[in-house]
Amino acid sequence: MDLYRTTFAVLVVGSVGLAYSQYRRDKEALKDAKAGSVELNNAATAFKWKFIPVYLLVMGSDWLQGPYVYTLYKDEYGLAEPTVAMLFAAGFVAAAVSATFVGSLADRYGRRMACMAFCVTYALSCLTKLSSEIVTLLIGRLLGGVATTLMYSVFESWMVTEYFARSLDRSNMTLDSMFGLMTTLNGVVAILSGVVGESVVAMTGTKTSPFMAAIVLLMTAMVIIKRGWNENYGDRTEESKGTSDESSLRAILKDKRILILGFVCCVFEGSMYLFVFFWSAALKSAHAYSNPSTKEQSAIPFGLIFATFMASMMLGSIAFSRGSSEAAASKSIAMLGPAHFLTVAIAVSTASLLISVLIKSETLTFWCFCLFEGCIGIYYPCMGALRGRIVGDGVRAKVYGFLRIPLNFFVVVLLCLTKEGDAHRDRVFTFCGGLLLAGTVLSACYLGDTTEGTKDPEDGESEEFMDGSRIDSPA
């Protein structure tokens, strides 16, 4: 128990200290800002706090549901294991299929409208949890799959498009720091959501209550979006030009950086989803291996471990924000840019998974898992920043959706092949480690030189990369 408490305390203190250091640095940067940029910096701050509350409400609604989906199906409704697996697989398949068209619709008819559609769709998915009928639950999983695709594409698309449309790239708020803040606060919301979810279940006596609480958050987010957000679009000229989605996809996939981002997204986030599925069993096994003489195994504090994982993720995201701030200040983007951070995060993730397989120790396994979670905290702002730089506004939501198609099928296939036992779990971690190693090599070879840095805003030119090959439209 001391292992888990000590690690949690160290990570929390480290996160708070690094966050305070970053806060003081940002405050000093504001004091040093030129008079002409003060108004733009204020606009950036206003925009940040227009988007962040909605983002946190949306992510909070997702975190509230996460811990209770399986136990609601299995324990409260008494569904068989194969039925539960079928429902989970249906959600991933729906997410993969919807990824082929929801992004295009959002680009064409508006990202703000798509964000509100997400709120309604996810709320309907939550309502289906009140029924124990298989058909109703299946409909709920299908709606949840569509909502997941929307959640991970349209909100980010709206934010990045507005960021550049308002010329906030000329302010002291970088896109990297925005993504870093989002990931950090998301970790805080995850911990709070766990506490709130457990409280409402204890008060109501039913595991459907977190889903009802999620509806409240979703409706609140929708009201804020409707009243405070303006609409933005992608390239709506495609339809008049007769350009099909198939030809658009072919044009998009000509850029090797998009393909590599898609591969990295698939293997990293796929490994993350599988890690979520296996980590508790892996720690149980490591605990038993490290204490073979103990007849009655002591309980593992899973709640504390989850909080520790979230603290690790926050520390990773804060470290990325601090690094990107230093890079922006010293103009050494080639050394501390998101592509290089991403490469390091994937490499460390590879090592953490493989070490947990090779060395059976409770302490080492736990620390490896914390390291993996820290890499997740680095990965998300890196990937968001890279997508924001590489993908143009015209097809942003479409490309973001396409990037999630292989991810969903990857997770479905591996979940369908899941078996009981340590040997299978070790094979899965080893397989994921191998794919992550390939992702490390590809990221180092193809992303580091072509995605770092932008033209100087003082030049008055639109943002593009050194090779001038930003994807903007399927031309």
UniProtKB/TrEMBL annotation:
Chief subcellular location: membrane
GO BP terms: monoatomic ion transport
Keywords assigned: Cell membrane, Ion transport, Membrane, Transmembrane, Transmembrane helix, Transport
Region of interest (Disordered), residue spans: 452-475
Bilayer topology term: Multi-pass membrane protein
InterPro entries, A to Z: MFS_trans_sf, MOT2/MFSD5
Transmembrane segments: 6-23, 44-64, 84-106, 138-155, 175-196, 208-225, 258-279, 299-321, 333-358, 364-386, 398-416, 428-447
Coiled coil: none
MF terms in GO: molybdate ion transmembrane transporter activity
Localization (cell): Cell membrane
Pfam families noted in UniProt: MFS_5
A single GO cellular-component term on record: plasma membrane
Job of this protein: Mediates high-affinity intracellular uptake of the rare oligo-element molybdenum.
Protein name: Molybdate-anion transporter
Species this protein is from: Pseudogymnoascus verrucosus
Organism placement in taxonomy: Eukaryota, Fungi, Dikarya, Ascomycota, Pezizomycotina
